[in-house]
Fold this sequence. Notes:
The chain is built from 27 helices and 35 strands.
Amino acid sequence: xxxxxKYDPSQVEDKWYQFWMDNGFFxxxxxxxxxxxxxxxxxxxxxxxxxxxxMLNNTIQDILIRKARMEGKEACWIPGTDHASIATxxxxxxxxxxxxxxxxxxxxxxxxxxxxxWKEKYGGIILEQLKKLGASCDWDRTAFTMDDSYYKGVIRVxxxxxxxxxxxxxxxxxxxxxxxxxAVSNEEVIYKExxxxxxxxxxxxxxxxxxxxxxIATQRPETILGDTAIAxxxxxxxxxxxxxxxALVPFINREIPIIGDDYVELDFGTGCLKVTPAHDPNDYxxxxxxxxxxxxxxxxxxxxxxxxxVPEYVGMERFRARKQIVKDLKKAGILLKDEDFNTxxxxxxxxxxxxxxxxxxxxFIKMKEISRTAHKVVMEDEILLYPPKFKNTYNHWMENxxxxxxxxxxxxxxxxxxxYYGEGENDFVVAESAEDALQLAKENSGRNDIGLEDLKQDExxxxxxxxxWLFPLAVFDGFDDQYYDHANGKIVNGANKDLDYFYPxxxxxxxxxxxxxxxxxxIIAGYEYKGDKPFKNVYLTGIVRDKLRRKxxxxxGNSPDPLDLIRDFGADGVRTxxxxxxxxGNDLLFDEKLVEQGRNFANKIxxxxxxxxxxxxxxxxxxxxxxxxxxxxESRLNQALTELEDHFSKFRISDAxxxxxxxxxxxFCSWYLExxxxxxxxxxxxxxxxxxxxxxxxxxxxxxxxxxxxxxxxWQNIEERFMEESLIITQWPGAGSFDRTVLxxxxxxxxxxxxxxxxxxxxxxxxxxxxxxxxxxxxxxFANLESSIQKLANIxxxxxxxxxxxxxxxxxxxxxxFYLVSTGSVDTKAEKANLxxxxxxxxxxxxxxxxxxxxxxxxxxxxxxxxxxxxKKKADAEAKIKTLEESLAKLED
Length: 893
């Protein structure tokens, strides 16, 4: 079988992905004979296309799932998409606008038809893109958070939590997104790093019937017209005599009381605080304490309304109104000054518009009690976070958890199952269907004349997170009738074969910024409905940033198109490139050179494979050097595999890749193949050839989860295979024992060889010219390495001697002195300088080791093998120093 001269991913990737799909290698079923291993994908928004964060996150998931599959586990990776209420509705509204249609002109039913049309056209794009990356998901299980079964589950949970008293409806100060025209939760409000520069305006308010003024400082002069009090601290001697008097609101002269409240800080601002209960959460609390009027002067679109009482401002956008009001305050002579002010400004995560605090009647979940178990299990390590530093973040959020606003003023999403049958505040029922609601409404009202036409369902939909928090349960249809106990509000254990087998899932791979949005809430739902955790481990990736540490985004133009990267460098190159600088929980500084490095790695492996397959094989005895090479590399492979498994156990996926990368690039390609390859034009013995193929196969097995396409291509080209012998399902190798003596001997061999090669390079001695090597040690000390030194360093003979030969270059490895004999003249002065330089370096190295060993905390606290290694370094350095000094003394003679 001929191999192409160059590895071409475009000719390989689609071929093997389709092969894996056609043979059902990604499919998983409950199987009591096998250990389950399951992952649920963080469902990307249906509005989304693949970005660099997805690439990193899904590469890690695929590595874990492929490894588990090869370990013989029933590996199930469940894909899906999130309906993303706010983002999708915005896309649909934009599509309608382009068609000349306004949302306001459509019925809810008509709008939803357009929304589903958009979803069917665009909603699956990102999942198709993940296939290009090599994601081995069980695509038959693909979930969507608005699927019928999933939708019913979300509604069922709402009804249950309302019945249990966790869900309530109330008038609260919420975060309002004026662009999306919906409430957003506290967790969906973001703040720019380092704050933002705003203005602080100092405005005078007149005291009624007195020639006296008070000054307030505000960032939001557009809310002045909603003021209903001025507050001072009752302990503040400057102003406490004003308590009980009235002040006048600028422009409209509304009389407002001056009140005393401890919230006002004595040493901050002017000492006087304008109180606007409708537009600030702290002011709202003050208003409740003092029974103040609430005047909401800003409408849902962020414009001033008629309640501001100034006709010129009505309908004016809030920030435009701010500018106009500032002008008018100046004109009236009551703006004393304005100054720049660095502050935190809350913005909507979805639209980036500045959040408007707003009083609104919304639906909430009481979080304090329902989240207790979810808090405890993470703090007690029943669920493990990687890296563990995020436990502090999690603890802070859970200790300060607030009620969750779950209603959104949208049409796309799960419609809140509350049905109103009268005008009273409590004239509503919550039920899974209109028919159930009708029955409840009759019972609640005592009326039998109510019909379905008299019920009006709540117009709002649920927060997207109020559906995705059920993902690990709902993807297995956990809330379907046959698996759900209505009376107790629990999923029945033992009824759902798939759920009982694959739940809890093994690992969740996600981003730290949704640790509370999604992770914590899934844990809450898991214990509430299944009585168990939804996953055992949470691996938190970093944020993908550019070389300047900026978060990658389309607006900055610093985010490459992942599909372009795959086209240019191959999926395997991109996967490895993403991982080269991606330790868990730390941000990834993306550089296209990393992906180029990944592609080069693929080419290196391909060229090594071509070299091996190009050897002519002969039925000849195996040379001793090849036998040693095979024993050494097998030990080195087992040592690296032990290290790699340790990295996997600690979710150091990047470190695991680097362990295998170095093993292949350095140990296999640079050393082993150079060691065993036959002289040009000569055949290789069959034992060495077959050993080399066996070692290559072991390397490909472990590399497969990282680089699935290249490894399957090589695996299938090594020899003809049956379908069931495909690499994707080949047994993962177990780490065997390794011979430390062999490893140490060969390390010495490589040191000697490297020194000889360096001398040849620096002295312009041709690597093709055979040279003799003398060693100033007892005869036979390196007998087991002699043949290998001769082959790797092109040495004609090795002579053990006490005398330094003429015309030679000397070097020291550990405590042994070597002389590379040259046919030309040797610059003694330069030799002396080199030895002095090496002596200085070794003395410096010894100082560092001595400092470490003189540290009692290190000696007593480090593992014994680490301390022993340092002591060996000390002994080797001391012996080397002695030998170098002796060599220098000989040059002086």
